[in-house]
Write a structure and sequence with these properties.
11-stranded mixed β-sheet; alpha+beta; 13 helices; globular
Length: about 625
Amino acid sequence: MIISPKSISTLIIALSISILSCAQNTTEKTTPIFKDGEAQIVEAFSDTNKWIRHDLWVETEFDTDGDGKPDRMHVAVTRPEQTETEDLKLPIIYVTSPYFAGVAADLPGVMWDVEIELGESAKERVHPEVTRRGHRPIISNSHLRKWVPRGYIVVHSSSPGTGLSDGAPTIGGENESLAPKAVIDWLCGRAKGYTEREGSEEIKAYWSTGKVGMTGTSYNGTLPLAAATTGVEGLEAIIPIAPNTSYYHYYRSNGLVRSPGGYLGEDIDVLYDFVHSGKEENRPYNNETIRDTEMKNGMDRETGDYNEFWEGRDYLNQMDNMKAALLMSHGFNDWNVMPVHSYRIYKAAKEKGLPTQIYYHQNGHGGPPPTSMMNKWFTKYLHGIDNGVENAENKSYIVREYDDPQEPTAYKDYPNPEASDVSLNLTYGGTSIGGLTLNKVPVAGEMLSDDASISGSELAQATNSKNRLLYVTPKLKEDLHISGVPQVTITLASSKPAANLSVWLVSLPWQEGKDVKITDNIITRGWADPKNHKSLTEEENLVIGKDYTITFDLQPDDQIIKAGQQIGLMIFSSDKEFTLHPKPGTELMIHLGSTKLTLPIVGGKGAFTKATH
């Protein structure tokens, strides 16, 4: 066949138009957009009506509900339509929780009775049942509006034994680490997912790049760390917010049975009942196996000692395999999940050489880092954009006392590298007001009497009290910056074989009224069992009248105490808000000559001297 020059010309033009059209179609594909090292909101990803939402079940490698089959975790996916229409692959923001399907009601008697003598067993408490809520395919709507428009897929899952997930809740047990690992393995093509809980039809995460980041607050912030300790491939970065990193540190303190703030009488089995929203027919087996055997035999409310049960629920012991980059967030005035939880993991991750940053604010429980910080972190590790976040000179970001939480002050690290320990001694007069001084003091002793009916705030404000000892610095002539972990060494003798020991560090004069800020009165706190003065794993009864010395840390802090204030060390026995409440009358003799407070102060001894003289 002979083709005319005109036909050839027409064919070339048609072919050119076709190629141009393909090129235009290619360039018109929707992709994430980045500016200043952050993922930007993309209009095409932002129409919630076009998001694709579906759920599935991921098969795990464990069976904790005793039915002879691997437990399956209920997973929900929310992704932009372009992951279907344009074959777009995106990274994942993954959030997992035991709370998504609802929790038990706070009925009378669900908490352990705290009106008992130390070492005694309390009567059995009430066990509530959870009424499960929620409808497929939605597990949760959290984090969707923040991350999907910025070019991420958001995945949620219910923890073992909660919602429509199989298994048993173990509150820090191994399955709570392996469950999110399985979901990440599925997102990376290494585990099986099914369209139905009991079905055999498989489903693939063909829209996933295999890059996963995790975040969440409180229990939901604990589980990213749990997943990271498995070393699972594909989990690139985690941003835990106020995570519980050790259930011993949550329910005990230096050998002492201590409740989390606001939940007097709570213990690990109470939390188990609180979240146990899984399949009703599996609950009796789970209760018998986990709550009524493993927990009952391991939690030990009688001594408060550290043991294998608690050791297995401490993520600091499980960090050998961790590879994920870590941005940690916490509040210095969080008396529920206290700031030590974040600090201990941040410190260990830094020592391992992992990319780390920490964000602290001055408020209570919860509080994420600024969106910009989170965005940069996920942009670097999930999208692979070289924004230099891992090489930032400053590793610590702290919200100063009167600043906006979105505008933290940057420091080279936490604790502040310019802080050093200053040892302060106690001078006589603590039943009214004694002193805190750099000078050595004569050997003396002062007595306090326990009374759990009096609150710590009442004791701190009392002009005189036989129920506490209070030692204060001179009035500060200029601001004093505390940064790090205060520590106390206390030598005492008890009138009984067991006693609570509580310490508050306070800023005086005590402020009252509706305008009082959370930082105004309590600087930090700590609690300990004198019976554990030698060991956390084995206590010994106190010999009445015999001296014992115990050293323990208070909660980490970073606070600027304003000029005109005084720093006060308050020593007392039972803490109405946190400890057991034995009958009043236990007497503690505190030996001042061998008792001290160690404060980490920016500028060290020189700064303290300048501020107090």
